Amino acid sequence: MAGAHVLMFPCPFQGHVQPMLKLAELLALHHLHVTFINTHSIHNRLTRYGDIQSLSASYPTLHFNTIADCYSFGNNTGSGDTTAGNIILSTTLHAKPLLRNILLAQSPEIPKVTCIIQDGILGSLSNDLASELGIPITIIHFRTSSPCCFWPYFWLPNLFKTNELPIRGDEDMDRIISNMPGMENLLRCRDLPSFCRPGAKGNLSIDWVSLQTQQSLAADALILNTFEELDRLVLSQIRLHFPKVYTLGPLHHHLNVRKAETNEANDNTSFRSSFFEVDRSCMAWLDAQAKGSVLYVSFGTSTIVTREELMEFWHGLVNSKRRFLWVMRPDLVVGRENDDRIPEELEEGTKERGFMVEWAPQEEVLAHKAIGGFLTHSGWNSTLESLVAGVPMICWPYFADQQVNSRFVSEVWKVGLDMKDVCDRDVVEKMVNDLMVHRRDEFLKSAQAMAMLANQSVSPGGSSHSSMQDLIHYIKSFGKENN
Ligand code: UDX
User: Fold this and answer.
1) Is the Cα torsion angle 340, 346, 352, 358 positive or negative in sign?
2) 383 C-alpha vs ligand 1 centroid, how far in Å?
3) Ligand 1 touching residue 376 (CB < 6 A)
4) Which of the residue ranges 47-56, 97-106, 238-247 would you say has the lowest mean pLDDT?
5) Is 380 in the pocket of ligand 1 (CB under 6 A)?
6) Which residue's alpha carbon is nearest to atom 30 within ligand 1?
7) DSSP 99-132
8) Out of 118, 154, 272, 406, which could bridge 378 as a Cys pair, Cβ 3.0 to 4.6 Å?
9) Distances (CA, A) of 35 to 22, 254, 454
10) Phi/psi class of residue 186: alpha, beta or left (left: φ > 0; alpha: ψ in -120 to 50)?
């Protein structure tokens, strides 16, 4: 059967699956055939907490398929080890034969796969697969983390050559990195991707992440979840090495705007791609709060804090006397005992001015008029969602790209404050009041200007809108050639 057909394969984490699903929906809105591959455990979570069945039912050309969880295989990686590092490593090692089986068992009812959009962090997976099978498939890498981190990942080997890496220890953390093109003298050692730190957590090394990033050079094109106006300087550097880059972001907003314009996707429903049970009770609480009075606090899907850090944040929030909505994921705090006593002043302060949920409808929360700031771990999806909503941020990065993102929030986009590597109740209190009161106008002005640029980029004639048209054209051109 003639036509284009895209197979999409994200790394199995919410922060990766979610923007890829948004892209899949955008492609399906353009009537492209898309097969989206999830691992069993991701598919189960999306079935349980998201709307994956309704999503599938709404688009006749969007198909879902599943493969086994790669961390359950033995060999080089520990079987059953579900740490983030092992999930990524085991997927790069074991997914290829599973994807091959899917490619070999294609239905004659729909066009054969002409293009693979693979999560870039998985390296050479699809290139190897296509050459093994000897079939012409266009390979596109989608890096779901930030471009301002993709670029350092790519450039890191050069920092060893100029002796700017390795980082020599704690006393070295404020040293400025001068030889990063497009980011000269911007990053300190502490702002580099977390894998650069001595004794970095997890089992992914700088060398490994950097090598995976270099593998994207062999792909036919690269997709980034950003917009030109946000990352102009970084993109011009990336394009010196990657000639075909599509900037389609912010993807969640891009999709919302397209769906608002079209009547084709049923009633423009926004489908949840959640991995946790959403508690909407916070929306009624927000409705009762004054405009711009609430700080939203959320650390994303996998950040963990110690009991001591929890107490510093909690005291700082209560002492700031500002209202707050806090996402307290059940697995957020390590070392917490059931009989841990919560100090009375925290109980009281929270009852008076706070609200806690285990998981919030974050996009909606950030768009609510009561929200005046966001204390975030600087995950790339959260950062983009905050930028789109025009909400200033306090950043407390945890790992990977978050260290770079938070530097850009404070020093490049100037839409917030970076609290990196500090967890102290007095600092929390001061930053909350700076963001929400003393420097509110300054941050709000730049955040709203950025939100306007984000909106323009996905509107007709905007940079991300045009880039999406180009991508569709590119994908369709291969559909024609192959049939
Ligand atoms: C991490 C990285 O930091 C990210 O940049 C990388 O690309 C993937 O891994 P994560 O912890 O998942 O990401 O954070 P983030 O990228 O911000 O994604 C979290 C998502 O969960 C956001 O889309 C956010 O809206 C959603 N969320 C979070 C909710 O819907 N409700 C909540 O209560 C909290």
Assistant:
1) negative
2) 9
3) no
4) 47-56
5) yes
6) 362
7) HHHHHHT--TTSPPP-EEEEEGGGTTHHHHHHHH
8) 406
9) 13, 21, 29
10) alpha
User: Can you tell me which residue has the tokens 């109740």?
Assistant: 425
List the chain domain ranges.
Answer: 5-274+456-481, 281-455
pTM (two decimals): 0.96
pLDDT of amino acid 184: 95
The encoded tokens of residue 403 equal 């260290």
- Judge if the beta carbon of residue 14 lies within 6 A of ligand 1: yes
Cα of 255 from ligand 1 centre, angstroms: 17
Same fold, 5-274+456-481 and 281-455: yes
For domain 281-455, the CATH architecture is 3-Layer(aba) Sandwich (3.40)
CA of 160 to the centre of ligand 1 (A): 31
Q: Which two tokens stand for residue 448?
A: 């709203």
- 132-to-125, 137, 478 alpha-carbon distances in Å: 11, 11, 20
Cβ atoms of 4 and 472 within 8 Å: the answer is no
CA distance 300 to 15: 9
When the candidates are 3.30.1380.10, 3.40.50.2000, 3.40.50.300, 2.10.25.10, the CATH number that belongs to 5-274+456-481 is 3.40.50.2000
The CB of 363 under 6 Å from ligand 1? The reply is: yes
**Catalytic positions:** 16, 119
Across 300-327, average pLDDT: 97
Per the omega criterion (within 30 degrees of 0), is the bond before 250 cis? yes
> Is residue 126 within 6 Å of ligand 1 at its C-beta?
no
Neighbours of 82 (CB within 10 A): 12
Computed over every residue of the chain, the mean pLDDT equals 93
18 Cα nearest atom in ligand 1: 23
Which SS3 state, helix, strand or coil, does residue 172 take?
A: helix
pLDDT of 34-83, one tens digit each?
A: 999 999 999 999 999 988 888 889 999 999 999 999 888 765 555 667 88
